[in-house]
Amino acid sequence: MIDEVELINSLKTEATREKAYRLLVSTYKERLYWHIRKIVITHDDADDVLQNTFIKIFRNINNFKGESKLFSWMYRIATNEAISHLNHNAKILQLNSEELISQKVNNLKSDVYFEGDAIQLKLQQAIATLPHKQQLVFNMKYFEDITYKDMAEILETSEGALKTSYHLAKQKIEKFLIDN
């Protein structure tokens, strides 16, 4: 496990910045990729958003004040970048973001990067029916096992609201799976 304070200091120091940035990317790219992928659904979009996320992290590391964990700060950037990407693409296609996500989930079968079976596809379809915030909360808790405390930092909301969102999301997913 890397020392977060040491990494941040190395990222903020010109002489060690490039090496520290490579370490940051190698340490967090997979987790951030899958977090982003659950939001934007497709591999190509996740790849684009991940690249934009790391560019934003690199450009803004000197603004990181350490009031939250580095992990939480990066996840917040990744989440915001993914949502912005969805909203931008939805606007271009003249859809709302929920319609766009639903469309992407329906196209997952033909996505060469999707390795899931019929049950995983059905779960993705169920998740796509949730309101956007519930999708985020469900994915972060169910797939990534992020604590409510860390989620509260990432999404800038209360733990209680997150627990409620997760509970409602689970109920809606269960209902969807039973009905479909």
Helix content: over 70%
| Shape label | globular
Number of discrete domains: 1
The CATH class is Mainly Alpha
Average pLDDT, to the nearest integer? 89
CATH superfamily: RNA polymerase sigma factor, region 2, helix turn helix motif
What distance lies between the first and last C-alpha atoms, to the nearest angstrom? 43 Å
Number of strands: 0
Description:
The chain has a single domain, classed as Rna Polymerase Sigma Factor, Chain: A. Helix 4 packs across helix 8 (148-155) and helix 8 (148-155) crosses helix 9. Helices cover 76% and strands 0% of the residues. With 180 residues, it is mainly alpha-helical. It has helices at 4-12, 17-40, 43-60, 70-92, 97-106, 118-128, 132-143, 148-155, 159-179. Keywords: Sigma factor, Transcription, Transcription regulation. This is RNA polymerase sigma factor. Residues 24-90 form the RNA polymerase sigma-70 region domain. GO terms for molecular function: DNA binding; sigma factor activity.
What would a concise description of this structure say?
Pfam families: Sigma70_r2 (PF04542), Sigma70_r4_2 (PF08281). The protein has helices at 4-12, 17-40, 43-60, 70-92, 97-106, 118-128, 132-143, 148-155, 159-179.
Task: Provide key terms for this protein.
single chain, 180 residues, mainly alpha, Rna Polymerase Sigma Factor, Chain: A, globular, WH-like_DNA-bd_sf, transcription regulation
Topology of helices and strands:
Blueprint: H1 4-12, H2 17-40, H3 43-60, H4 70-92, H5 97-106, H6 118-128, H7 132-143, H8 148-155, H9 159-179
Helix pairs in contact: 1-2, 2-3, 2-4, 3-4, 4-5, 4-8, 5-6, 6-9, 7-9, 8-9
